[in-house]
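Why do we bother with holo predictions? Because pocket geometry can differ from the apo form. Keep that in mind while you read this record for zinc ion.
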Amino acid sequence: MINALTVDLEDWYHICGVEELSNPSEWHNYESRIIKNTDRILTILHQYGVKATFFVLGYIASQEPGLIKKIIDAGHEIASHGFFHQRVFELSEKEFEDDLVRSLDVISSITNKGVVGYRAPEWSIRDSTPWALSILRKHGILYDSSMVPLTRMGNRNNPVSPCQFKTEYGKIWEFPLTTTKLFWENIPFSGGLPLRMVPYFYIISKLNRMNREGRSGMVYIHPWEFDNQKTKIDLPLSRRFMHYFNIRVTRKKVEGLLKHLQFAPIRELLDLNKC
Ligand SMILES: [Zn+2]
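The structure, written out:
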């Protein structure tokens, strides 16, 4: 079985829910660390011969087109992470569509081809945004990876494996956050804070078990998780924890997974290469 490896290509200051960081016109004041951190990821992926899906923030693509070209040249898939890193449930339909189109335009102008994948910032396609998948499909998106089967962040009844939804513009795949069942709840473990908190042997044994059962898991990482330097911004305690807890272990854990499991970009895994 092959698993999906995904990278949310955003800089350290793209954090939802922090007032001080929410205004894009202030972002130029923050030190850009995206190139250095992405290079670290590209080096590791090259070392293990793994290709991934990079969900690129349109803002990053507009600032660093050379970085996007470098990722394409290394053979990875480029998909969209929106433009301004806004949570979908905080936007109107129109605002969501505008942000999506802006990201697709800037990314396509660099890649010279259409974008077929999308991931919302903070997995923010929820029950309160029933229009989101239709808008994505309307603009040529063939798969989304923004839904979580979690009680607090999404809906416990959301899909736990890749599946297709019908929209008025055609079918769209959903590749949801990978979770494991613990009593009556689904628990995440394969990326971000959960990957940094949960012991490595637990992560690899869960993914191995999924693969033995014929299911693909998804590992997701962020460039800022490969950066040990602390931010000078005073983040609220919960955000500081989410962002920096156990950050030093990310690289080692990810390298272990790349060494022992099979990975591919989502587009390839869902067999959308011909589309
Ligand atoms: Zn993000």
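Residues 8, 10, 14, 81, 85, 121 surround zinc ion (CB under 6 Å).
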